[in-house]
Specification:
With 249 residues, the protein is an alpha/beta fold. It has a single domain, classed as Alpha-Beta Barrel (TIM Barrel). Helices cover 47% and strands 14% of the residues. It contains 12 helices and 8 strands. The protein has an 8-stranded parallel beta sheet. Strand 1, helix 2 and strand 2 form a beta-alpha-beta unit. Helix 6 packs across helix 7. It is globular, with a radius of gyration of 19 Å. It starts with a helix and ends in a 6-residue tail after the last helix.
């Protein structure tokens, strides 16, 4: 395992640059490293990531010194553990609506004594190699503490219920921060298809302000990211428009 590259960059006083993947693409990870991204994020809720693909993504990204974070498909502890055992060092749990759900998310991501994460035998626990665990971390408890310190746990608050329960969510000690989901949040506020509705924007601002006041991160406080969709719908679209009528010769 490597030190969490996002947190390492944050210690330098800057946001980490993150390349977002919606589908497995090892070539894109190499290119992201080539141009200088700090980390990789995968969208397990809306993308397609079988566990063996996550293994390869973490293997390649870590080889280039980039940590991998993920939005998981759901918040079940077993599902989160499948991601963490591959080597994921940051989890965003979708649709967190209560303090109890936020606590369960943190518990699934953090080893005892801070949480209830199950010990596995994959990359996420250095393949359960007792010799390495002893030499590098001073044993399994030492690794557990190191892993917890290098784990980012984020609750995605994308419903008016979460807004109403925000104090309870922010009170969870193992939670690093919160992030939004403008489309689903707007829908829950009665504004479907209007993610930029003023009520949604004001509510998100309130959530992020209160999160920071509670010592948590809000929104894009520690990272800034882009993915292939944004590049294709932005720079690539402009390229096509500019060259659509180029003449032969």
């Amino acid at each position: 395992m490597i030190e969490n590259s996002i947190l390492a960059v944050n210690k330098e006083g800057r946001k980490a640059t993150v390349f977002a993947l919606a589908h497995p693409a090892l070539y894109m990870i190499e290119m992201a490293a080539h141009v200088g991204f700090d980390a990789i994020n995968i969208d397990g809720e809306h993308g397609g990531f079988p566990e063996e693909a996550i293994d390869d993504i973490c293997r390649v990204a870590n080889g280039y010194g980039m940590s991998v974070t993920a939005r998981v498909p759901d918040n079940a502890a077993y599902q989160i553990n499948l991601y963490l055992d591959r080597g994921i060092q940051g989890v965003t749990g979708p649709h967190i609506n209560s303090g109890a759900e936020a606590q369960a998310l943190a518990d699934a991501c953090l080893f005892p004594v801070d949480g209830k994460r199950s010990w596995g035998g994959g990359r996420g626990t250095e393949f359960n190699d007792q010799t390495l665990l002893d030499e590098k971390y001073g044993g399994k408890l030492g690794f557990a503490k190191w892993s917890n310190a290098n784990m980012i746990v984020v609750a995605q608050t994308e419903d008016k219920m979460a807004w109403g329960n925000l104090d309870d969510i922010l009170a969870v000690p193992g939670l690093s921060g919160v992030t939004g989901g403008p489309h689903d949040f707007a829908q829950s506020l009665g504004h479907p298809g209007e993610p930029d509705h003023p009520e949604r924007v004001a509510a998100t601002l309130d959530i992020e302000t209160r999160a920071r006041a509670a010592g948590k991160t809000g929104g894009g406080d520690i990272t800034t990211g882009i993915g292939i969709a944004e590049l294709m719908l932005g720079e690539a679209r402009r390229f096509v428009a500019e060259h659509r009528n180029d003449k032969l010769g």
